[in-house]
Amino acid sequence: MADDDMKRCPFCDEEIREKALICKHCQQWMPGYTYESAIRDLVIQKQITERKTVETTEPRSREELLELAVNWAKRGRKYTLKGFDLSVQDLSGLDFSGADLSETDLSETNLGGANLSGADLTGANLFRANLRGTDLKKANMAGTYLREAMMEYADLSMAHLPHANLRSALLNHAVFYRVDLDGANLKTADLRETNFKESYLKGTNLEGTKTEGAVFIGALLIGANLTGSDLTSFQYKRAHTLEKTILPDGALAE
Asked: In this predicted model, what pLDDT tens digit does every residue of 225-248 receive, in sequence order?
């Protein structure tokens, strides 16, 4: 019997589906059904439908995942990209604003010039990814792995990066205006001409960083580690606070 076979309701004589348990016109239960048996059948049908949905959507090839990612914005931004394997792909210039990319593998992926503003990248893997000139404003990147990522000229204004790993990342000329970098690791990163104006750098590791021309005006450096960096006193003294921060020469700020 086809799903679209029709019949007449024995109570109101309106046309309804053959498998209908209740008439959509007069709200009468079909003969032979009690309320309990109808609910039981509805629950069973729902379980079967959900199982089929899982079985048909779980296994996807890398080609299918890439196709879904590339067309995400064109298809109305209605589905999640969470946990996708999009490593070593070219996604440059694409619109992922507001996308759920949490726990997604984007290692060595080209996202140069892409729009990731407001995107959820928590726990994502962006090892050696290309984020040059990428829009990351207000992105959630808590715990994101960005080691050795190329992020020159990227805009991360008001982004959220607590405990993110940015070790040895290329961040020169990037904008970190009012960014939360609580507990983040930027050890040996290239921070030349980077703007950290009014950013939150509590417990942030800036050990051995290159900071020529970097701006820390109004930044909160609380318990940060600047050991071995080339940050000058002129630069760090423009911060809002240096509370318990280890200065480049190893001395503790007073």
From this structure: 999 999 999 999 999 999 999 999
